[in-house]
Specification:
Blueprint (H helix, E strand, L loop, with lengths): L2 H23 L5 E2 L2 E2 L11 H4 L2 H33 L6 H34 L13 H33 L1
Antiparallel strand pairs: 1-2
């Protein structure tokens, strides 16, 4: 698969994340024919956002926004890495940094996505607008993503060591 195509798909993913965020925190529900598309934030029952006051929706969106922004930052760093790969800069310090930043941002975004629903419930309760039960949940996809991020971080350490050894060997020749 060409790197350009992967980069296009990556930015489509970013656009989809932005659209999901907006649809999850506004009362807008697009429809296609007789079918209505209802997006909801993780941990909220379908239709619950319609019962929230505008201030409570704004509070929920403000708590969810850091997760999305960190993920978008990570995907942007992945795009920079792919651009470096396109230029054949596979093991440059910049490429290693991009991969490390992507792994770190994705890990942070995953951790924030685990913490955000209970924090949102707590904040809405304190604001007097929360009737939801308090729950913390972690699913297998999140656990797998944490493991994959850790592996990518380890790979960046190996890439950095390989780069150091290459530079050391070039000094002997």
């Amino acid at each position: 698969m060409k790197i350009t195509l992967i980069r296009v798909l990556l930015w489509l993913c970013v656009a989809a994340q932005a659209a999901f965020f907006v649809l999850a925190w506004t009362t807008y529900a697009p429809s296609i024919g007789s079918m209505t598309i209802d997006m909801t934030a993780i941990g909220m029952p379908f239709g619950a956002r319609h019962a929230l006051t505008p201030g409570a929706r704004l509070l929920g969106a403000a708590l969810a926004l850091p997760t999305t922004l960190v993920l978008v930052y990570g995907l942007w760093r992945l795009d920079r890495l792919l651009l470096n790969f396109h230029r054949r800069e596979l093991f440059s310090a910049q490429s290693i940094g991009h991969l490390r930043a992507f792994a770190g941002a994705t890990l942070l975004s995953t951790m924030l996505s685990i913490a955000e629903p209970p924090l949102r419930t707590l904040a809405l309760r304190l604001a007097g607008d929360g009737g939801q039960h308090f729950a913390v949940g972690v699913n297998s996809e999140q656990l797998m993503l944490i493991l994959v991020c850790g592996m990518f971080y380890l790979i960046t350490r190996l890439m950095q060591e390989g780069r150091r050894l290459r530079e050391e060997n070039e000094g002997f020749v």
